[in-house]
Design a protein that fits this description.
298 residues, two-stranded antiparallel ribbon, 43% helix, binds zinc ion
Length: 298
Amino acid sequence: MDRGLIVDAVKNGKVLISDGAWGTFLQNKGLKPGDCPELWCVDRPDDVLDIARSYIEAGADMIETNSFGGSRFKLEHYGLADRTTELNESAARISRQAAGDGKWVIASIGPTGKMLLMGDVTEDELYDGFKEQAVALAKGGADAICIETMSALDEASLAVRAARENTECEVICTFTFERTVKGEYRTMMGVSPIDAVKTALEAGAHIIGTNCGNGFEGMIDIVKEMRDVETGKPILVHANAGLPNNVNGVDIFPETPAQMAALVPDLIKARTNIIGGCCGTTPEHIRALRKAVDEIKI
Ligand SMILES: [Zn+2]
């Protein structure tokens, strides 16, 4: 493996580029509301491969996998819980094929939709669910497990531990924050960036960060807050292309590639190590981010 570890690649100050949206890309390719996105890894692998390839071609150093909702808790809504291993393994294998030997596959694990606080599941059930998904993603060829869009500390912590204790993969953990009326950043469950960082690191995450949310600009403030408590670990940002406007039932994300690229210097100044996109970002956004990063002399 000539690509080595992601944490080593950013050690000397190099900024890496990650990929853009998967969900909105799948919708553009015909995924309908109510369809299971992860089933496409088996039923429409060429379309999934095309998404992965288009981000590699745009200049991404790493790509995610089509497995965001691939926990058995999410798949059971579609009657697919017994195919959890198969779907996740396929997701990782497809992204591995696109990434080749030179780029990293950071395999996506999203929230389960279950809340420990509400007694929906036990800690053991949740841990076992994350373990099952992470092991399958690793088996399919993932370099890292990217636990993302987290908002509850207990769920994030179990997911990180399950990935750390059962795979050899590097583990990334990112939270989604909204700006409150007081101007503070909090997850849906009221968690601050500082507490998110502390919990993710205690559980064993190698890389921390933030994804989704309102757009690029807020990400700069969130990274600054994270850097107040953590100076050494790499930080990853997957930003949405702004806050969506719903036009005739379709979400339109307003930030253009050029607008996002213009904020790259500030994001790097705040000491972000890995930059990519979330909802609404396209290969064009990633191409613009790549160019912006390449033009900065460190
Ligand atoms: Zn998003």
